[in-house]
Amino acid sequence: MNEALRRAMLQAHMTDRKLAERCGVDIKTVGRWITETGRVPRARHRWAVCEALGEDEAVLWPAAVKKAIKVGPDREVVSVYPYRSGCPASLWRSLITKAERELTFAGYTNYFLWLEQARFGTALRRKAAQGCRVRFLLGDPDSDLTRSREQDEDVALTLSTRIRVTLAELEKIRSQPGIDARYSEGHAYLSVFRFDDDMIVTPLLTHSVGHDAPTLHLRRYQDDGMFDRFASHIEELWRRGSPVWEGEDDG
């Protein structure tokens, strides 16, 4: 039995029938994927399952990817998306759910998370209560840089408004120990979101908004690799950042 697939389906609340519909196969085929040890679906079906469940192919069918295991410096690149909006919301949820040590959200506004992740604040509060460090790096809504970027974006829902929405949501959960937030301008054009040893990176292109940014899903496999480079960047910004809440600075 493919226990990894079965667990992923349970976590995603995905029935055999729903998964079959998402992948364009018969429900009996999904049953065989689960019950027949060593059975590996076709590549297009594996990719459809991974997208539907927000899980990696290497987790569900490790044998299928052994032949294509990367050994170079790009092996930390799990997947790429031309647009952040193309990165499944289920993947974000899966990474948030699995994180045990660290959740760092270094987007300039982080606004989209509150829209796309149901009961996001509740999930953060629960993670922090379980000992997971939760950090937010935000742009200052009143800074010159924010005003300059607003002119570049030229959209109705301004950057400062989106930042203030995030600040209002964080205010609701700030009483939970383990949740902290700081202002920084060093990530205005590069958002980094860390979930233990997984990371989503979105470099912002000229005159574009966050959901149009190309997106990388990274996983740490080596010292001083791509993951560590981005992680060090965020740690330095956090060190230099200023606390969102007066009198609160846990280092």
UniProtKB/TrEMBL annotation:
Domain (HTH cro/C1-type): residue spans on this chain: 5-60
Transmembrane segments annotated in the record for this chain: none
Cited Gene3D superfamilies: lambda repressor-like DNA-binding domains
Superkingdom of this protein's organism: Bacteria
InterPro entries xrefs: Cro/C1-type_HTH, DUF5919, Lambda_DNA-bd_dom_sf
UniProt GO molecular function: DNA binding
Name of this protein: XRE family transcriptional regulator
